[in-house]
Amino acid sequence: MSVFLNLKSASAQRRQIIWGTIIIVAALVLFWVAPAKAEGNCPPGYFPIGGGSAGWEGCAPMGPSNGGNSSSSDSGPSYQITSVPRRPTELGFMAAAYHTDTGAYWVSIKVKTLEAAKARVLDACNKATGGGCHIAAQLGGSAQIYISEDGMGQRYIEGAVGNEMLLDPNVSMRSCLKNSFGCDFYTLYNADTFFLDVDPDIDQAQDFFPIIKLIQSKWAMVVQPTKPTAAHKKSWLISGSEDSEATVNKILDRCTADTGVSCTVSAYARTGQKTTDNGRVEMNGVLVHYVDSQGNNYWTSALPAPIKRKKQKSNFGGFMPRHPDPETVKERVDRFCPSKCRIIATYDALTPRLQVIEDAP
User: Fold this and answer.
1) What whole-number distance in Å separates Cα of residue 349 and Cα of residue 189?
2) What is the mean pLDDT of residues 248-264?
3) Of 13, 213, 192, which is closest to residue 107 (Cα–Cα)?
4) 252 membership: H or E segment, kind and range
5) Helix (H, G, I), strand (E, B) or coil at 156
6) CB neighbourhood size of 349 (10 A)
7) What is the pLDDT of residues 289-322, one digit of tens each?
8) Would you say residue 117 has pLDDT above 90?
9) Which of 66, 231, 297, 351 is most buried, most CB within 10 Å of its CB?
10) Closest to 255 in 3D by CA, of 293, 287, 216, 228
11) Could you read off the pLDDT of 261-295 as tens digits, one per residue?
C-alpha cells in the first residue's frame, strides 16, 4: 500500500513539473506574440516573422539601417549617395588669325578676355610668317569658329554664335562661297570654358597653331580698266609671284600706267594644298579667258581637273554637306556664260609671266 502511494505521489510530482514547464514556456511565447497581435506590428528595431501556415507569430531584430527609418519589409543595408560639387567654370573667348600667302590659320580658345585672345593669335601668326597677319574672327561665350577650304587650298574663316550652324549648314562656308569656288567644310572650334578655382597665373588657354613648315603660295591675277573704252580692250595678267599684296599692286600699277585710268582685279588663282582622299595635295589654280557669242570677253578661275574629295563627318553627326559648286574649267565657264561660249586660253598660277592680253573677237 505504501509503495502504491509513493508511486502515485511520484507520478503527481512529475505531472506538476511538466505542467509547470508548459506554463512557463507559454508565458514566454505570449510575452513576444501578444504585443505583435495586439498592436499589428513589432517594437521599434524588429520585424514580424511566422504567421500564415507557420502556426505561430513573433518578432526578430532588424539589420543595421540609416537612422532606424527603414520599412519593416526592408532588412538589407541602406546606402547614401554623396554628390561631388562641380568646379566653377566660365565660358572663354576665342580668336582666329590668318596669313593670306600661306593659307595657314592660328586659333586660340579658352582665353580669359577677348583682347588677350586677339593678341595671342596675332603675335603667333606674325612671328611665324614675319608679318602680314589679320584677325578673321573674335568671339566669346557660346560660339564657334568654322574653317572651310576652297578648291585651290585657300582657307576661309567664319564665326557663328549659338546654334547658327545647325540652322544653316552653309554658315561654315559663307565666306568661301562668296569669294571663291570648290568650297568644303574643314573643321570647327568651340570657345570652351576655363576653371575659376585655378591659380590666375596658370595659362588655361588652348592653341591650334600650324606645326608644319609654311609654304608661300604663287599667285596669278588678271586686271582690267574699271571703265574700259574701245582703246582699252585688253587685260593685264601676272602669275608665278609670291606675296599677294605686292603682286596685285604691281599689276594694277602697270594697268593704270598703260591706260591712264583706274583698274580693278577681274579674277585670281593661286597654288596651295587641298585636303583630298590622298591627303594634302598640291593644287595649281588657273585663270580662264573665254568669250560669249556676242564677242564679250570674260575671266574666271578654275581647276584643271576635278578633286577627289574625302567625306568628312560633322561634329553634329552625319557627313558635312558640300555645296555643289562647279570647279573645273568647263564647269566654271558653263556656269557663268549667258550663251554659248568659247574658251580662249588658260593660265596657271605657278608659271611666272607678266603680259598684256588682247581681247578675242
Assistant:
1) 32
2) 95
3) 192
4) helix 244-259
5) strand
6) 24
7) 999 988 889 999 999 988 776 555 544 444 444 5
8) yes
9) 297
10) 228
11) 999 999 999 999 887 767 788 999 999 999 998 88
Inter-CA distances, 294 with 266, 290, 337, 343, 344, Å: 19, 12, 11, 14, 14
Phi and psi at 86, nearest 5°, equal -75, 145
Task: Determine which helix (DSSP H) or strand (DSSP E) holds 268, and give its type and residue range.
Answer: strand 263-276
Cell of 287: 585663270
Report the C-alpha gap between 257 and 260 in whole angstroms: 6
Three cell numbers written together for 268: 585670281
Query: How many whole angstroms separate alpha carbon 120 and alpha carbon 106?
Result: 9
- Hey, what's the cell of 297? 570677253
* Grid cell in block for residue 53: 501556415
Report the C-alpha gap between 273 and 158 in whole angstroms. Answer: 20
Cβ distance 283 to 272 under 8 Å?
yes
Residue 333 Cα distances to 45, 164, 234, 258, angstroms: 91, 33, 20, 29
Complete DSSP assignment for 188-232: EEE--EEESSS-TTS---EEE---S---PPPEEEEEEESS--GGG
